[in-house]
Structures are given as structure tokens and as C-alpha cells.
């Protein structure tokens, strides 16, 4: 019997989760009991928490060992520098295109015009960086062990890059012993990742069921045009911009590649975590898309931290949406073309440092709002719909990371036939 591939199992899990969540919500509504008090919800919550904890458990060691191992495969600092520059330019290019897509659509659709809302009086309850430079300084950890414990991925990646770069300067037995140790640890982490991935259909089903059982469509009605604008911008980047770039730079079928990466994309959608999805992304990039380990293990962990196409696009649409809402309340407020250009620059810049901050998109948005003189309290408007949009923009983040890995591997001549 032909083995059913992982992406089909994940699709089955998503459908099962939707049906289970819908049934639980309907049953509780008819019985007049809270969803959270049911055994079904407890099961959804328990299974989804275990799955998310497993994903998070492997991320830090997987990032460190795979990144250092990939850098050792470069052989020299000169080649590492060339690959790093090429990766960075691709990442900045895709992020800029995502931002311009969001800027165009939010100005065409204007979802905030005529929205009748009351300005929230309570600010978002998160510690917010006061400046872009504070964001950059937060990217450099004073204690890498504490950064790992706090799941500050960007600090771990910076340390891993420095560790791998200085490993390349070693010679003789020291380098050989340490390289073999790093490679063995990387292999172990990939095997552990395979084990966690095998549980993905069950974990994703529980995540989806939990979301559907507690969320109703009424949450989205008032914000429908905002949600539509964000969704349309994300879809444009996913289905038009990134495929065009893949075809231009590799001459490969972009939609076949995206389908190959679908297990990672489904996982990204259900977990809303680029870093949590990294293990699946690495495995599919190497075994599914045929990207070499030395490229994938360098480009993808880096992309999970600095390449946030979906987050940057979301921030631009959200800030301009808030500006449109505020203009309806305060007619004297206007957003000049120069301020929109400032928003573009800040959206590109702060997306680089977004990964190490809780609720990255919303918190980083505050810096942009402050820069253009908008009340930060407006961020409370989009909390109700942020979870679903976060799931969508995480798919874009992971797709962009994978696409750049493919383009860089093609340029380096390190793409082979897929394994499965």
C-alpha cells in the first residue's frame, strides 16, 4: 500500500480539527454551558499545549547546532561572507516587496474610512521598546544562556553565527573534533525533529479545534474590511510576488515548490510561530525541495529571525488602517507622503528585530505609530482578529524563508532532486 504523505495527514488533521471544534461550539451553545468547561476543550488544550511545547523544546538546540554545522560546511570565512551577503539581499528584497504590496492595497481599499469606533482607553499591556536603536541593542544578548531560556531566538542566532565564524579560524585536531561533535549533535536534533513532525497531524488538529470551539464569526464582522485587506495583501505576496521571484531566479515551477513545502506551511498556520515551525521547514527544504544542508541550515534559521515578510506587510496595513480610522475621528490629522515613506522604512527595519519580542507584530507596530504621531491605544482595535491574521502572516514568513533558501541554493549550485 502506498504510504500517505505528511501533508495529506496534516490536511486530514485540519479538517478533523474544524469539525471537532465546530461540533463542540454547537453542543455547548445548545446546552448553555461554557466551552472551556468541557472535557473536549480540555483535551484540545492539553494536546495542543504538548505539541507546542515539543516544537519549542527542539528549537534552540536545533537552531544552534544546525546553524553552526551549516557554517562549517562553508569551509572558509570568504564563502560564508558571500553566502551571507546574498541571503541578506534576498531577504531585504522580499520584505520590501511585501511592504509595498501592503501599502498599495491599504491605500486602494481604505478599510479604515467610515469605521465607527470608540478610541480604546487602555493601552496594550506589553513592554514596548522606546526607539529603533533599543530594538537593535536588544538583539545583542548580555547572557546567551538567559537569551536561550527566554526564547530570544535572535540572540541565540547571533551567538551561533559568531561561534561558527570563529570555528572556521581553528586548525588541526581541535577543529576536527569540534566539527564532528557539532555535526553529530545536528544529526541528533534532525532525528528528534522527525519524531515531533510525526505528531503534527494530531497536534495541529487539536490547535484548530481549540480555536474554532472558542471563536465566533461575530468577532470579525466590524473589522471585516481590515481583515480582507490584510488577507488580500498576504495572498498577493504568496501567490504572485514570491512565485514570480522563484521563477525569475531559478526557472523552477514555484507552485510545485510551495506545495512541496506545504507541511511546513500548514504547521506555520496552526502554530503562528516561524521559529516553532523551523524544524519542519528545515526537513522539507532538504528532503522535499532538495536544498543542500549547508545552505538550508544557514539560510532558514537566519530567516526565521530577520525575514518577516508577513509581519512587515501586516504592520504597514495596520498602521495605515489606524491612520484612516483616526482621520475620521480627528479631521485635522493627515498622513503625508513623506510619513508613508517613513512607515515603509521603519516597517522594513523593525521587522528585522521583531522575532525576539512577544507579540512581535503588535509590539513593533507601536514604534511606527509613535513615529507618525498616532495614539498607541489604537492597537487594541486589532487584538480581536490578530490571532487569525497572525496565522496567515506566519505562513508568508515561512514561505518567504523557504523561497529565499531555494534561490540562494540555486545560485550556489546546491539544489538536488528531492528525497520524498
Automatic annotation (TrEMBL):
One of its GO terms (biological process) is L-alpha-amino acid transmembrane transport. GO terms for molecular function: symporter activity. It is found in: Membrane. InterPro entries: DAACS, Na-dicarboxylate_symporter, Na-dicarboxylate_symporter_CS, Na:dicarbo_symporter_sf. The keyword Nucleotidyltransferase does not apply. Keywords: Glycoprotein, Membrane, Symport, Transmembrane, Transmembrane helix, Transport. Pfam families: SDF (PF00375). It is a multi-pass membrane protein. GO terms for cellular component: membrane. The chain crosses the membrane at residues 7-24, 50-68, 88-109, 153-171, 192-213, 225-250, 335-357, 363-385. Its main location: membrane. This is Dicarboxylate/amino acid:cation symporter. It comes from Candidatus Polarisedimenticola svalbardensis. The lineage of its organism: Bacteria, Pseudomonadati, Acidobacteriota, Candidatus Polarisedimenticolia, Candidatus Polarisedimenticolales.
Amino acid at each position: 500500500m502506498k504510504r500517505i504523505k505528511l501533508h495529506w495527514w496534516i490536511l486530514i488533521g485540519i479538517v478533523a480539527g474544524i469539525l471537532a471544534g465546530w461540533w463542540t461550539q454547537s453542543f455547548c451553545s445548545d446546552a448553555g454551558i461554557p466551552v472551556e468547561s468541557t472535557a473536549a476543550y480540555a483535551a484540545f488544550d492539553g494536546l495542543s499545549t504538548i505539541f507546542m511545547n515539543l516544537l519549542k523544546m527542539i528549537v534552540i538546540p536545533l537552531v544552534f547546532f544546525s546553524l553552526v554545522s551549516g557554517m562549517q560546511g562553508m569551509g572558509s570565512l570568504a564563502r560564508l561572507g558571500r553566502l551571507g551577503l546574498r541571503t541578506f539581499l534576498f531577504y531585504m528584497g522580499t520584505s520590501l516587496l511585501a511592504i509595498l504590496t501592503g501599502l498599495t492595497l491599504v491605500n486602494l481599499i481604505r478599510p479604515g474610512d467610515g469605521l465607527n469606533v470608540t478610541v480604546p482607553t487602555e493601552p496594550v499591556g506589553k513592554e514596548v521598546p522606546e526607539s529603533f536603536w533599543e530594538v537593535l541593542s536588544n538583539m545583542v544578548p548580555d547572557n546567551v544562556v538567559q537569551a536561550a531560556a527566554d526564547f530570544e531566538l535572535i540572540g541565540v542566532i547571533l551567538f551561533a553565527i559568531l561561534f561558527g565564524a570563529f570555528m572556521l579560524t581553528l586548525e588541526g585536531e581541535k577543529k576536527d573534533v569540534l566539527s564532528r561533535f557539532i555535526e553529530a549533535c545536528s544529526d541528533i536534533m534532525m532525528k528528534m525533529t522527525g519524531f515531533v513532525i510525526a505528531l503534527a497531524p494530531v497536534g495541529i488538529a487539536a490547535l484548530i479545534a481549540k480555536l474554532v470551539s472558542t471563536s465566533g464569526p461575530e468577532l470579525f464582522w466590524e473589522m471585516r474590511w481590515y481583515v480582507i485587506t490584510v488577507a488580500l495583501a498576504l495572498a498577493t505576496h504568496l501567490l504572485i510576488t514570491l512565485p514570480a521571484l522563484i521563477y525569475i531566479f531559478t526557472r523552477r515551477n514555484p507552485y510545485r515548490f510551495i506545495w512541496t513545502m506545504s507541511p511546513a506551511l500548514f504547521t506555520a498556520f496552526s502554530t503562528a510561530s516561524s521559529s516553532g515551525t523551523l524544524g519542519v521547514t528545515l526537513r522539507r527544504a532538504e528532503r522535499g525541495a532538495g536544498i543542500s544542508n549547508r545552505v538550508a541550515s544557514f539560510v532558514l534559521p537566519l530567516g526565521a529571525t530577520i525575514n518577516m515578510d508577513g509581519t512587515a506587510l501586516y504592520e504597514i496595513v495596520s498602521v495605515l488602517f489606524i491612520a484612516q480610522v483616526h482621520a475620521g475621528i480627528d479631521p485635522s490629522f493627515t498622513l503625508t507622503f513623506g510619513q508613508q515613506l517613513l512607515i515603509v522604512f521603519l516597517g522594513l527595519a523593525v521587522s528585522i528585530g521583531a522575532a525576539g519580542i512577544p507579540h512581535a507584530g503588535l509590539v513593533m507596530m507601536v514604534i511606527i505609530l509613535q513615529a507618525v504621531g498616532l495614539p498607541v491605544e489604537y492597537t487594541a482595535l486589532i487584538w480581536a482578529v490578530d490571532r487569525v491574521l497572525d496565522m496567515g502572516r506566519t505562513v508568508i514568513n515561512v514561505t518567504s524563508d523557504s523561497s529565499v533558501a531555494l534561490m540562494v541554493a540555486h545560485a550556489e549550485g546546491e539544489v538536488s532532486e528531492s528525497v520524498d
